Amino acid sequence: MSILIYAEYAPEASGGKFKKVAFELASYAKKVAVTLGTTVTAVTVNAGDVSELAKYGVDKVLKVNNDQLSGFTAKAYADVIKQAAIKESVKLVLLSSTTDSVYLASFVAVALEAGYASNVVGLPISTSPFLVKRTAFSNKAFNTTEIETEIKVLGLAKNSYGIFETPSTLTEEDFNPTMEENDFGVKVESVEKISGKVSIADADIVVSAGRGLKGPENWGMVEELASVLGAATACSKPVSDLGWRPHGEHVGQTGKPVATNLYIAIGISGAIQHIAGVNSSKVKVVINSDPEAPFFKVADYGIVGDAFEIVPQLIEKFKAFNAQS
Questions:
Q1: Would the pTM count as exceeding 0.85?
Q2: DSSP character for 157?
Q3: What's CA 287's distance to the chain center, in Å?
C-alpha cells in the first residue's frame, strides 16, 4: 500500500515545471507515509523532468504522457488518478486545492468509492479512526472530520503545511492508463495565459488594491510593488466590476480564494466577503487612509495613511534591500 499524490505540472507554455503545491503535497504525504510505514507515489501528466520530486520524499513516479491530456479535463484526469490508485493498491489519495484539483476531486472520490475531505489544514489527528482537521465557515472555524471508507481522498489547503526536503531514491515508471471516449465530453478549445506575471494560484505574496486607488491609471505603483516583491497582483470585487482590472484578479469569497504567506491590501476597506476569501493568508498587511476601515481588525500589520505616499516609499525601501542582498 502506498500514498498517492497528483503532482501538478505546468506545461511548457507556462514554464514547464512542477507547481509549488506539488512539493507541499509531497512533503505532507511523506510525513504521513512515515507514520503509516509506507511509501509515496506520485502520478504526473505530461511532465518533463520529474527528479525534483525526490527531494520532497516521493519514492515512485507514474509518468503519464498522452497528447489527449494536453488540456485539462477533470473527468479524464480523474480517470488517470483512479487507475493509478488501483494499480498501486492505494488507500489514501492526496490532492491540492488548486482550481483544477478541487474540480477533479469529486470525480476521483466517486470513481474510487472514497470519502473526501477538502480544506485539510494539518496532518491526520488519528489514523484509526481516520480523523483530519479542516477549515469551515469561510475559514472562520475548524472542524474534525472522520473518514470511514477504505479508500480516502484528502484535499490539502494551500500553504497549510509547508515544504520540507526529505530526500528519497526515486523510481520512474511509464504509465499508460486506458482512456475512454466519455472521458473527453468536455473539449478545451483554448487556454489564455498572462505571460511574465506571477499567478495568484502560485504566488507566495499577493499585492491587492481597491477603489482607494481612485482609478485604473494609478495601478502602476501596485504592479511595481508586486514586481519588486515577486508577487501577484489582485483586486477587490468593485474594482473588477468597474473594469479597472481583469476579473481574473478579483480575490475574495466571491472571487479567487487567497492563502498566501503575505497579503498586502492597499485601499481596500475590507468587506466581509473579501476578508473571508483572504483570511487564510499567514500575514496580512493593510494600507488605508481610514483608521476605521474594517480590514484593520483582522490585519497583522496596519498602516494608516495615503497609499499614494506610502506605496512609493515601500517600493524604494524594497529596491534598496534587494540591491544589498
A1: no
A2: P
A3: 25
Distance (Å, whole) CA 107 – CA 110: 5
The candidate with the shortest Cα–Cα distance to 95, out of 67, 70, 114, is: 114
From residue 293, alpha-carbon distances to 200, 212, 303 in Å are: 24, 11, 11
**DSSP character for 274?**
H
Q: Is the pLDDT of residue 202 over 80?
A: no
Q: Bigger pLDDT: 158 or 64?
A: 64
CA 55 to chain centre: 20
Q: Report the pLDDT value the prediction gives residue 190, as an integer from 0 to 100.
A: 67
Taking the C-alpha atoms of residue 101 and residue 28, their distance in angstroms, rounded to an integer, is 16
Contact 60, 26 (CB under 8 A): no
What's phi and psi for 285, nearest 5 deg? -115, 130
* pLDDT given for residue 10 in this prediction: 83
**Alpha-carbon separation of residue 159 from 7, 55, 212 (angstroms):** 15, 18, 29
Q: Which amino acid is at 253?
A: Q
Q: ∠94-175-73 over CA atoms, to 5°?
A: 60
Closest C-alpha among 79, 95, 76, 84 to residue 152: 95
Beta strand pairing call for 126-127 and 17-18: unpaired
99-130 pLDDT, tens digit each: 889 999 999 999 999 999 999 999 999 999 99
Query: Residue 215 and residue 87: Cα distance in Å, rounded?
Result: 55
Give the separation between CA 78 and CA 105, rounded to whole angstroms: 7
- pLDDT of 195 > 60? The answer is no
Rounded to 5°, angle at Cα 209 from 204 and 211: 165
Residue pointed to by grid coordinates 481522498? 153
Which long-range contacts link 310-313 to residues 24+ away (Cβ below 8 Å)?
Answer: 311/221, 311/222, 311/225, 311/266, 311/287, 312/221
Q: What is the largest CA-CA distance in the chain?
A: 60
